[in-house]
């Protein structure tokens, strides 16, 4: 293997760095033996008529269940009636990109697949209506053709608007809030089958709760979203020495429209990604991605199988060879990334001023305890908001995500890192893995009890719950 011929772009490196971890067998720290809790799809349950109901699992396979009914309302009238007629609890399902137990149920699983599309595009006020099951990836071009765009996006666009809003899904950029912060109005059918519209002036308390609702107020059917004028972006990615990157993190945050970083366990490098507005005249022909990079790292991963002590050397050699990359295009072309390697994820948002210190401690802990992980850590900034259950409530935040492969035992790794987030008063992402119960959540979210009061009024029969919801909200 010629280590001096590794010339990688950052997308290939991120993908191949994770491929390294998938193939590596490390001999210290957390065990890398076959995971006894590897994803297993359950068998289908029987409905009231004795028919088999298809089982459900999320994208990564760490959450699964055997519902006894699959509900698929085609319109609001059917949705309302299904809720009124239900003799068991209902959980809503979207794209399945949540890693926590928000969706699993052995009772009724409801899809709003017929509630899709955008409408009422208001170019003067720069707003549009979107149905709950519309995927983020599908609205970019339609809005662009009307001169509009989403003001920001997460890097995974294969989520539904309903699911993204329910969990305060976010992108990066200290001047931009989560997807929930762009919602101007919402329509939902509550646990009594009643259709309710809410905004800042009408049913305002419901609005404050509904913009991050974790699927517990009822079924959100549509939202009015604040957009902005369409814009082009330039994305620059480059590798920095770790200490240089950590020292520059906040200045890079403040000097770019969007900034994020990927920290590599056991490496002396960190990847920076900066995104800025550009005029259309500065669009460039896209660079061709090095197609050999992935195969190169596949061969390197075989070396790690037999010589785990070469782990740091190999990762650092690969990182040091990553070339600066610049991409330009329409905003929705730049924001979205393909995620074709399955993983499980834990994410906490901590006060922005503590982000660098928290990341330092996580990286030091991984190295000190020789935790066998090579998956990059994602580091982003998010603006504060006024949404009751949002992890960004009245707090500019730094969101740090840790991952492990979908077929690895992530629990030991996450258990080592989660207390570090607690040390910095981190709030968990509702759709990601965490271990906090209602008592601990109550201490982190100032409006926790206000949310519970609205939730109880919207769903007095506790139809939109499951065991996980009961645990994190303290419901009986």
Explain what the structure shows.
Residues 1-8, 19-34 and 288-305 have low confidence and may be disordered. Helix 5 crosses helix 13 (448-458) and helix 10 runs antiparallel to helix 11 (410-423). This protein has 14 helices and 22 strands. It is of the alpha+beta class and 476 residues long. The relative contact order is 0.17. The chain starts with 9 loop residues before the first helix and ends with a helix. The protein folds into 2 domains: 1-35 and 118-434, Uridine Diphospho-n-acetylenolpyruvylglucosamine Reductase, domain 3; 45-111, Uridine Diphospho-n-acetylenolpyruvylglucosamine Reductase, domain 2 (2-Layer Sandwich).
Task: Please tag this protein with its features.
Uridine Diphospho-n-acetylenolpyruvylglucosamine Reductase, domain 2; Uridine Diphospho-n-acetylenolpyruvylglucosamine Reductase, domain 3; alpha+beta; single chain; 476 residues; 14 helices; 2 domains; 5-stranded antiparallel sheet; 22 strands
Strand content: 15-25%
Let me know the average pLDDT.
88
- CATH-derived topology of the largest domain: Uridine Diphospho-n-acetylenolpyruvylglucosamine Reductase, domain 3
Poorly predicted segments: 1-8, 19-34, 288-305
Number of helices: 14
Q: Tell me about the biggest sheet? A: 8 strands, antiparallel
Structural class: alpha+beta
Integer count of domains: 2
Helix content: 25-40%
Evaluate the radius of gyration: 22 Å
Strand order of the largest sheet: 18-15-17-16-20-21-19-22
Shape: globular
By CATH reckoning, the class of the largest domain would read Alpha Beta
The number of distinct β-strands equals 22
Question: What's the CATH architecture name of the largest domain?
Answer: 2-Layer Sandwich
What distance lies between the first and last C-alpha atoms, to the nearest angstrom?
A: 60 Å
């Amino acid at each position: 293997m010629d280590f001096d011929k590794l010339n990688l772009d950052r997308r290939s490196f991120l993908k191949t760095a994770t491929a390294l971890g998938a193939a590596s067998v490390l001999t210290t720290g957390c065990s890398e033996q076959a995971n006894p809790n590897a994803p297993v799809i359950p068998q289908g349950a029987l409905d009231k008529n004795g028919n088999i109901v298809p089982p459900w699992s999320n994208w990564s396979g760490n959450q699964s269940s055997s519902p006894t009914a699959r509900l698929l309302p085609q319109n609001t009238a059917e949705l309302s009636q299904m809720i009124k007629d239900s003799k068991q609890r209902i959980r809503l399902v979207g794209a399945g990109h949540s890693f926590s137990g928000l969706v699993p149920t052995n009772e009724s699983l409801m899809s709003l697949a017929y509630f899709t599309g955008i409408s009422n595009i208001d170019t003067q006020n720069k707003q549009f209506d979107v149905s709950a099951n519309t995927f983020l990836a599908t609205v970019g071009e339609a809005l662009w053709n009307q001169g509009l765009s989403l003001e920001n996006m997460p890097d995974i666009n294969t989520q539904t608007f309903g699911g993204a809003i329910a969990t305060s899904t976010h992108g990066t950029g200290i001047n931009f809030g989560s997807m929930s912060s762009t919602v101007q109005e919402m329509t939902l059918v509550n646990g009594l089958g009643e259709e309710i519209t809410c905004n800042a002036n009408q049913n305002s308390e419901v609005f404050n709760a509904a913009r991050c609702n974790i699927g517990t107020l009822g079924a959100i059917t549509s939202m009015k979203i604040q957009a902005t004028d369409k814009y082009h972006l330039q994305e620059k990615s480059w590798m920095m020495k770790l200490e240089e990157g950590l020292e520059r993190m906040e200045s890079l945050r403040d000097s770019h429209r969007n900034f994020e970083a990927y920290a590599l366990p056991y490496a002396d490098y960190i990847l920076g990604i900066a995104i800025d507005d550009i005029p259309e005249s500065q669009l460039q022909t896209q660079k061709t991605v090095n197609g050999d990079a992935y195969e190169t790292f596949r061969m390197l991963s075989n070396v790690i199988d037999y010589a785990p002590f070469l782990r740091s050397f190999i990762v650092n050699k690969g990182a040091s060879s990553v070339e600066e990359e610049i991409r330009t295009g329409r905003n929705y072309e730049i924001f979205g990334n393909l995620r074709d390697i399955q993983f499980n994820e834990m994410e906490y948002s901590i006060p922005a001023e503590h982000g660098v210190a928290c990341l330092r401690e996580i990286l030091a802990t991984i190295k000190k305890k020789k935790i066998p992980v090579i998956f990059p850590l994602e580091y982003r900034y998010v603006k504060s908001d006024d949404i009751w259950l949002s992890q960004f409530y009245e707090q500019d935040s730094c969101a740090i995500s840790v991952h492990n492969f979908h077929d690895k035992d992530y629990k030991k790794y996450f258990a080592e890192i989660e207390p570090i987030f607690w040390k910095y008063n981190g709030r968990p992402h509702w759709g990601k893995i965490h271990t906090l119960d209602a008592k601990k959540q109550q201490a982190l979210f100032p409006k926790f009890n206000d949310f519970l009061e609205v939730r109880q009024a919207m769903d007095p029969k506790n139809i939109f719950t499951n065991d996980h919801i009961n645990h994190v909200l303290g419901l009986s």
